[in-house]
Amino acid sequence: MAEQTLFEKTLRSINSIFNTLGLFLEPSKLNRWQIIKYRCLFVFNYIWLNSDMPGAVYWFIDGIQNQNDIRELAQTAPCLMLCGVSNIKTLFLIIYNSLIDNIVHELRELNSAEEQNVEEKKRIEKEERRFLNFVLKSLNVFNIGLVISFSFMPLIIIAIKYMETKELELALPFFVIYPFDAFNMKYWPYVYLKQIWSECIVLLQICAADYFYYFCCTYIRIQFRLLSYEFENLFPKEYYKRSDDHSYIRGKLVKLIKRHQRLISSTNVLEKIYSKSILLNFLSSSIIICLTGFNATIMNDAVSACSFVTFLFMSILQIFYLCLFGDMLMRASINFGDAVYSCLWYKAGRSIAKDLLLVHLRTQRPCKLTAYGFSDANLRSFSKIISTSWSYFALLNTMYSENQV
To answer: Residue ranges of the alpha helices (H) in 166-242?
Structure first.
């Protein structure tokens, strides 16, 4: 089916990111050797990334104790936090791997189910996938830009300083203390490449977790919109409570209610997978956005400022899309309640009307995703995060300005 091909195409592109990291979406489709191979790749990438973490943390703590320049400390802090967030989000993907397998299987079945209104399904899916593809492409652009800017920033700074002083002063993308002299020409190229790949791993881990979240939200929303369409057209205009019409409507209603129950179950599974990750994003985003914005405004050279401007936009987009897709799923669930009320329920018999009333009562509790129950993942939460980030930024900027006087 064309629709299933579209579903599989999107899923395959996301699964390729998972596989690069040593993760997988559907363990039930893999044999034991494939699982071992992917797990070995994951362990390799995980060790590669986190072998730099102790040195970065040590550099940051030592910098605080020695009262290093606040600009250097502000440069390191958001990178450390983003690295920690990516590590934890990836571990949640491994912990809930069986649930991920279940939700992929459920969404595939819902998406491949035969529909009476095929054209409407095509229209809705095309519309939703167009937006999903736009989101993924925009994030890919910022992520690639971030890798390029942080990878080439030290080289540009080295070249500028060499032209000014005629001395070769080596630099690295990130501040990390190693048990050897990383600025020795024998080690510097390898350390440089190691830090670049570590950066790529961090961004791939975040992309893997977030892109699958967007994918699930999109296809659950598609099914809610299709369900709304089905309920709005549940009763034909010539429906006059004839017994044959009553039996047909009853059978159709039972199928639609079961689909609704499956969508509720899928949303609950997605909530179990991502609620802790969303909470982590909510707690860290305000500080990361604040610090990256601060770095972008105080940098003396345009190269470094450009890198942190890209970092800032990437951080804002990440939390914005996280809240936006949660908001879109919740609104699709709410709109489904309106669709149930808008159907010609007053033409139905008493038994069907009672069933419709029960469905409508259930829709008063919309399906939604939360930050582990503390806050809903919607646009209102995004506005609060941005407001908090601005407050932190204003305070930090004021303190820095006073110290400079």
So the answer is: 188-232
